[in-house]
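Exercise 7.
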Amino acid sequence: EHPALSNKPKEDVSARKSANNSSSNSSKKKGFGFGSSSLSSATVFGREASSSAYHPPPRKSSIQANVYDSLPSASTAHHSNYSTHSYTSSSTADASYGYYEAHRSTENAMPPLEFKVVSVPDELRQTCPSCGVFFSLPLKRRHHCRLCGDIFCNDCSAHRCLLPLEGPQFEKPVRVCNDCFPDVDKQNYFSMRRYLTPLILFDPENKDTMAVGGRRGENGDDNDELGPKQCAAALSALTSDLDAVLLDCTTFQEKITLGADVLVPAIVRHLTHRSTSDRAVRALSSLLALGNLVGDDSFAQAVYLIGGKEVLDAILALLEWSGSAKKTLAVQEQAARALFYLSDAKMIESLLNMSSGSDIAMKAVEVLKATQKKEEDEKGGPQLPSSSTIMVNPPASVEHLDIHRTIRNCLDHTTTSASPSLQRWSASSLRNLIIEDQRRSLVAASESAQTGGVAPLNYESFSLQLVSSGGVMILCSLIGADDADTRAHATAALSATIDATRAVDASQATLREMRGEPPTSGSNGNSTSDASIVEAIVSGGGCGSSLAQLLLSADDAVAGMGCSFASSLVRPILTNPQGSSLSEGGMAQSVGKDDDGLAAYRNAGIALATEGGCLPALVQLLRDPNTGGQVVRPVELRKCAMETLAAICLAVSYKAGGPDGEPDNAAMVIARGALERLEE
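Solution. The predicted structure, written as tokens, is:
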């Protein structure tokens, strides 16, 4: 059974009978981001790239997420302005499906673990984690919270509450810490704070945290561990709770009582350990998906500000696992899922516009200071610069993500036929990464331009390498994939590649002009490298029936992606004044012999008119139900379709504008066939 099928049974996520038990983790969240590009780094996030680009309407607030639909769809959460979109199944079995679904007892699935609250041993807490007071001081005794199991001083655990938990000790009021009390006061006895104790205290490099010696746990067990098994169980239980909130986002404020400055560090510190990395990356991706869905960027921001380059490299390392085992593919899928949300254009824009005095930035400083102080205490004194000098620079933190390395990995995984889900997440991430690659390139060009073009560029765009590296051909092959969502993501990535290449070409041309260098010239007289990408797309079948299927989609968001892609192929015909001129003497021109640099775009227009039913599909977008259309399309979508048709008409008139001569000219035959289609 493929994970995209809509008839899968859903796990019961009702309240558990005991705070000491938690169900195994499950499921994934969908999403896809769709922005636009521009020739200016100042408006790259403003969706003002071109008048031809279609931007779908805002997402409906009543969106209901199905966390079992683990794959990104052509629709998305709040950032991408997409409405909901139903998945289509694939004929290819997904080798990664079922690894995290332990309750289904699938083969080679992740072993299920039962989470139990463990009382922290006294030797692991020398100070109160809430106020920092030393327990060695007089009258400062250790006291265990009966809900989370951690140790606090008396002042920080002064509450006594009746907990509806199993066991004789809960027949009367028990001690609850100040951190857990707000949840208990709201009758939330299954607070996520229970998971923090093993997640924060477990350290595989410290043998003192591997076992609880001589102390009974909350269930009376003698051999409760605070080791990798308990940590993994906490990650699984946390993921299950996050997925439950994904099913009903109205409970976000009630259930997610921990801030990003607490949850994110507790999760990401386990990404590098083999025993916990699979569950940690699953928990992180679910947390990022939830934040994206409800419009809370703080979780993704915390990964950059608190985790930094070390955490982002750890996620990439998981994406680079080798092998085709179910666990490997499942972990790679979750890593790609996390990177999709971490490279979201709107989230990155929020980081770029964030000041060092913002709430999340200040919390990040506090977390970093606390971490450094702990390291200093363990090493017997200051080993690093004073914690008072620690600062975070949100805009600079964006550079922690290695764009080139991430794009290469995602391109590799788009060819993974064994796991269509991994293929989808990788394809969806590529578009975000290409937009970020464009932004960095334009910023580098702007900085160089401020010196008159003298300073060398400090960043090289990867989009210029996509043709030579075969990336464009890989994406073109995905346009014909069996899965509709994969086709949509590949189309969006190609459209972003074309727009990014044009933007980078324009900035490079400006720098060459500043330096007094002659303009460069590409193949077939084309002066821009995006022409090579358009040529590769046309030759790779990118204008075929798969594109027509996107254009005919009943979902305006999906149809908009297809239409925007078609528009990007022929847009220079409209924006270049020479595009509206006929051939010399009204004679038709052979394919590839244009001398005005528009050959590739005209050939794309001919292909759209003659191949795969794209022309009728574009016409269908313009029709309303009264004239034979299926539905009334948004005006912006119809405008994009009309501009695309205008460019196709100019291309066809240029190619077929001459008399009925040269019957053996293949280009003439094709152009005349396109003209007949337009007339029909």
